[in-house]
Amino acid sequence: MSTTRSVYAIFAVGAVAVLTLAACGASGPKAGTPEALYVDLGCAKCHGENREGQRSGPPLVKIIDHWDEASLLEYLKSPKTFIQSNPRLSYLDEQYPIAMPAYGATDEEQLRKLAEFILNS
Question: Full-prediction pTM beyond 0.90?
Answer without folding.
Answer: no
